[in-house]
Write a structure and sequence with these properties.
Length: about 600
């Protein structure tokens, strides 16, 4: 991906600049390109101040200064421009580019960084198609037709930039007075120009400010997903299918919010208790919306306060759903939901009785009379034995045959280096077609090989390192074991006195960092299974051991998928303490 500076369009960016920004940002095959957006030209030779919409540094080709416009129409006559429906319709856009080009050349020459790189100009009309051009004066002295780009070109930004530089070189390369050296703009020189145009200064960002910045950046990316929802929201039945970080939960919650307030009876549910709390925060507080875990829903239908003491798999997978189906048949008003929204659908899809329950919960037990929105991911069936898995998309179509399958493959949450590192760690292909989080976002996966007896010391070191960046509440420690068997549970529950690794200074220091009755804002710790569907800025995974691998194999659980789900709970940084030498990564990615 190209380096975008800044990483996201600023507030108030007009639609033409935003369209071109997203086009440049989506270029995947030019990793050494640098694109500046809305760069103020304080060292301006054409006036007190100036601005360039975009400056593109394309090593091996040259530099392009881009001015974007989105007029309703454009008229060029007798050397005068008129751009309809823009703030200054008679302002000459090419003269703006001339001034910006002179300023940039002068600045680089002053800093002895001018290497005769081709420096072209491009006027980009993002609202008009090429076919709408009626050029009656192709021989105009003031500009070349190849210095214009159109709405059609937004789909091929790299080609557009390289084309204007190629035409620029071919024409001006024949002019003796113009010295050009296209190869002079190497990746190293582009990095030097980048440093000169925006130099660094010392300062710092505290954790709170960094958290707010990351939240703002996440919101920009997720808000783009709302446009996708607008395309499909009129469909009665939807299935959002995507890997971790693709925005499934966000879209499901937004769909539920959009449907509320209209007097409908709405159910929002999932299997996971912690995930239900997240959905409550996103959708709850509305009179017509019930946000509840799947288990609690079935217990309520059956009139039960809780599961029987010592309940095992047969109760949850057969007895309770069978009892709930009988109650719904006798008292259909306990269901009769006009809209059902189910997150982490794959956790429910594997059980045929649960699929029958979804139908029974619909209004008049008829899915065609109910809005159904599911979100799921086949790889995340980590709580289901491999031989009992069911394709969640097929399960959804069993309930609603004509549902619209919305395939999400854009990373909207994780730092790209973390997303790619997670896939590499468990030897799987990158599930994303594009990463909408800026490539410059700090983050990644670090695998720490260690001897099992050094786990406490390694955990302390990892926690200390992450606390330099994140607050305790933004860090979560996860384990493939349940809470009674994990390393952190042993540390938290160890007696204060005694001997051994749990009585060391490292263990005592770690205990003070963990969430507790006296430290409610401490570091949280869960099993990977309990935290599935949730996220944290930073995650540490412990107990990647031979014992954990055997534990998974005995229960026919996919250990790779379990680790992948654990790693992708992190948005930015994940540290894996690996005493089994199981993962493929070595060091940071």
């Amino acid at each position: 991906m190209v380096t975008m500076i800044p990483a996201a369009p600023g507030k108030g960016t007009n639609k033409s600049e935003k369209a071109v920004f997203m086009a440049f940002e989506g270029i995947l095959e030019r990793p050494d390109w640098v694109v500046f957006h809305s760069l103020d030209l304080g060292h301006n030779s054409a006036g007190i101040e100036g601005e360039a919409d975009f400056i593109v540094l394309a090593p091996g080709h040259g530099i392009v200064l881009v001015e974007t416009k989105s007029p309703k129409s454009v008229q060029y006559s007798d050397g005068q421009w008129y751009l309809e429906k823009v703030p200054t319709p008679r302002k000459d856009p090419l003269r703006q580019l001339n001034g910006a080009r002179r300023s940039l050349r002068g600045f680089l020459k002053h800093h002895q960084a001018h290497g005769n790189e081709p420096m072209a100009r491009l006027l980009w009309f993002t609202s008009l198609g090429r076919h709408q051009l009626d050029n009656k004066s192709p021989g105009d002295m003031q500009f070349f037709e190849w210095e214009l780009a159109w709405a059609d070109d937004v789909a091929q930004p790299a080609h557009t930039i390289e084309k204007v530089l190629r035409e620029h070189r071919e024409w001006f390369g024949k002019v003796d007075e113009v010295a050009m050296h296209p190869g002079g703009l190497t990746p190293a020189r582009a990095a030097e120009i980048k440093r000169l145009l925006l130099s660094d200064f010392s300062g710092y960002e505290d954790q709170e400010a960094a958290k707010k910045r990351r939240t703002r950046e996440e919101k920009v990316v997720l808000d783009e997903q709302v446009a996708l929802l607008d395309l499909v929201k009129t469909n009665q039945h939807l299935y959002f299918d995507g890997p971790p970080g693709s925005g499934k939960t966000f879209l499901l919650a937004q769909a539920a919010r959009d449907y509320s307030g209209l007097g409908h009876k709405i159910l929002v549910t999932c299997f996971n208790i912690l995930m239900a709390g997240e959905l409550e925060a996103m959708v709850g507080g509305r009179e017509d919306v019930d946000v509840i875990t799947w288990n609690r829903l079935l217990l309520n239908i059956c009139g039960l306060a809780d599961n029987p003491e010592g309940s095992q798999t047969p109760w949850f997978e057969h007895d309770l759903p069978t009892l709930a189906l009988a109650h719904l048949e006798e008292k259909p008003h306990l269901g009769s939901f006009e809209a059902v929204f189910i997150d982490e659908f794959q956790d429910i899809a594997a059980n045929a009785l649960h699929r029958q329950l979804i139908v029974a919960l619909c209004k008049e037990a008829a899915p065609d009379r109910t809005r159904l929105v599911f979100a799921g991911d086949r790889r995340q069936q980590i709580m289901v034995p491999q031989n009992a898995r069911h394709d969640p998309l097929a399960a959804a179509r069993e309930i609603a045959p004509h549902l619209v399958h919305v395939r999400l493959r854009r990373n909207c949450r994780m730092a790209p280096r973390l997303a790619k590192g997670a896939a590499k760690a468990v030897r799987m292909a990158d599930p994303f077609t594009i990463h909408r989080v800026p490539s410059s976002t700090d983050g990644g996966v670090e695998v720490v090989p260690l001897a099992a007896e050094h786990s406490v010391k390694a955990l302390k070191k990892s926690v200390r390192k992450l606390l330099e960046i994140y607050s305790p509440r933004d860090i979560v420690i996860l384990s493939p074991f349940g809470l009674t068997k994990s390393l952190v549970s042993e540390i938290a529950n160890a007696p204060q006195a005694g001997e051994g690794p749990l009585a060391t200074a490292d263990a005592k220091w770690l205990r003070k960092q963990l969430v507790s009755d006296t430290q409610p804002l401490g570091i949280r710790w869960h099993s990977i299974f309990k935290f599935k569907g949730l996220e944290a800025d930073a995650v540490i995974i412990t107990d990647v051991s031979l014992e954990a691998i055997d534990f998974a194999h005995q229960r026919n659980i996919d250990f790779d998928n379990t680790l992948y789900v654990g790693i992708t709970r992190a948005k930015y940084h994940c540290v894996v303490l690996d005493s089994a030498e199981y993962l493929s990564l070595k060091g940071n990615t």
